[in-house]
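Case study: Impact N-terminal domain-containing protein.
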Amino acid sequence: MAAGLARVPSCYYHHLILKNKNGLSASVAVPTSLKKMVTNAAAAASSSINHGEYRSIAERVSLEKEIKKSKFIAIAAPISDEESAFAFLSEVRDPRATHNCWAFKVGQHSRCNDDGEPSGTAGKPIQSAILSSHIDRVMVVVIRYFGGIKLGTGGLVRAYGGVTSECLRNAPTCLVKSKVPMAVEVPFDLLGLVQHQLQHFQVEDIEQDYETGKDGFAMVSFKVDFDQVEKLENAVKANCSRQLVFYNQ
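Here is what the predicted structure looks like once written out:
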């Protein structure tokens, strides 16, 4: 079984609130650039998981099997959205093959295609195998090279569903935590201290905007694991001599 590495991109939520020093939350108007940052992050995950984490495959995997002289090659990969699913399909589909059938699942959204096989005999079994695996944000493409013996409707369903199930069973899985887009207004003299805390919590995509916000302040934006938001805020506040304004969903 051939396997190659493909990392799973992070996912995000969509809502903006401001927390005050008493821990109370309320909707606020924020600078346009910050709104855009949060909205774009949320749009990238319009089909995101509701509970903040999900199980996906950790890397691309493949499985090859011969069934009545037809060769079936199932290739599974982690995806982030429909666009990345079709990019993966374009990469692995073989125009010389008899059929390139596929299905994918991203949150509550899933699609499948029989690619010329009798309706419901290829895409649907692949999709059913994905749903049964409880793996999310994944696409499986099953490539078939016809060997001269017809499998019949039942045989096709078993073949496509079977190679997909076996491929996913062999795939290493991982628990993926959703990333929350956040930002904090930081006085210039506290930037070093805040950056140290952000690195400690292993946040991603740190950006500093000196044009947004009040004079003498920088707007620092980043993404952090959904279950680390409160801990990060508390750590920053505990190490700063002044109250900082956090923006998060």
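For the exam, be able to explain this: Helices lie at 32-43, 82-92, 123-133, 152-170, 191-200, 229-239.
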